[in-house]
Amino acid sequence: MAELLLKVEDIHKSFGKNTVLNGVSFTVNRGDVKVIIGPSGTGKSTLLRCVNMLAPPEAGKIFLEDLEVTHPKTNIHAVRQRIGMVFQHFALFKHLRAVDNVALGLTKVLKMNKKDAYEKATAELEKVGLAEHAQKYPAQLSGGQQQRVGIARALAMDPDLILFDEPTSALDPELIGEVLQVMQKLAQEGMTMLCVTHEMGFAKSVANEIIFMEAGKILEQGAPKQLFNNPQNERTRSFLGKIAELYGESL
């Protein structure tokens, strides 16, 4: 039986008079890979930031297992130890080496001793194919390598769930594949992932559910085969058609 990990209930979020999320609800079971797609500016990234309370919603509830993340008395720092985040623009500390960036949360947040923290950081860098680059600073790494350091940093905390916020959108086309390969490997190993991405090939091959959003709402969701091959919503059909035209391929 599927084990419920994340429950998002009727989330609303506005910035001033601009309504960004307007009643979003969905669930994530342990081991799921859910991919959120849709036009730019439709609230996808804001939704991820609501999940880990970087952008607390004005209304609605979010649960991580039995813990209400949105409850005012919830320890958000403890929640964020369980929910990793990989950002669009890497968010690495430029003055720290790759291994230092990965070890930082282990020593500062988990209070792990330095030797164990650096052993774990090194192991996580090896997992994303960067063991030989552990001593390099971000400026010495390609964009794809920096993003893989970001993934290693999230993995080091042994999270229950990792949020990916358009992790390849800031990369040159030839570097996208190396990041997607790491994400595919994580999915195969059973990591629970909630991803915002425009990489439809990745979504089709790795996700067990696609969520299509527009104007702050979920218009359609379903298995990749059903949503890509037989979308029920006209807006979903139109969006996917334009994506297929852009890349010159059939989804």
Layout of helices and strands:
Layout: E1 4-15, E2 18-29, E3 33-37, H1 44-51, E4 59-64, E5 67-68, H2 76-82, E6 83-86, H3 98-108, H4 114-127, H5 143-156, E7 161-165, H6 173-188, E8 193-196, H7 200-206, E9 209-214, E10 217-222, H8 224-229, H9 234-247
Parallel strand pairs: 3-8, 3-9, 6-7, 7-8
Antiparallel strand pairs: 1-2, 1-4, 4-5, 9-10
Question: What does it look like?
Answer:
- The structure is a single chain.
- With 251 residues, the protein is an alpha/beta fold.
- The protein has a single domain, classed as Rossmann fold (3-Layer(aba) Sandwich), CATH 3.40.50.300.
- 39% of the residues lie in helices and 25% in strands.
- The protein has 9 helices and 10 strands.
- The strands form 2 sheets. A 6-stranded mixed beta sheet has the order 6-7-8-3-9-10, with helices on both faces. The chain has a 4-stranded antiparallel beta sheet with strand order 2-1-4-5, with helices on one face.
- The chain is globular and about 55 Å long.
Kindly give the count of domains. Answer: 1
The CATH superfamily is identified as P-loop containing nucleotide triphosphate hydrolases
Quote the distance from N terminus to C terminus: 31 Å
Provide the spatial order of strands within the biggest beta sheet: 6-7-8-3-9-10
Radius of gyration: 18 Å
Q: What is the strand tally?
A: 10
Number of helices: 9
Would you tell me which CATH topology applies? Rossmann fold
Which percent band covers the strand fraction? 15-25%
Category by helix and strand content: alpha/beta
Shape descriptor:
globular
What share of residues is helical? 25-40%
CATH class: Alpha Beta
- H and E string: EEEHEEHEHHHEHEHEEHH
- The CATH architecture: 3-Layer(aba) Sandwich
Q: Mean of the pLDDT scores?
A: 94
